[in-house]
Amino acid sequence: MTPDAPFADSVRLALPAEAQAIADLQRRVWVDTLPASVVDQLTELTVEEMTAVWHQAIVRPPQAQYRVLIALQER
Questions:
Q1: What integer pLDDT is reported at residue 6 of this predicted model?
Q2: pTM for the full model?
């Protein structure tokens, strides 16, 4: 591991550019884990709208102590 590499099995702050990847992951998890009737209600939001919500949460959280974190896993 290089000195600049993240620690395995850790977390770091999310970057604004990762908002779409987070929204995509959230939608995939919903589809894979929730009943179709619930997914239908939740997916009324477009991926673009979900991305905007995640971007806002990353750059301007509702409270100063809130943060969006990204989990890291060693491969």
A1: 58
A2: 0.80
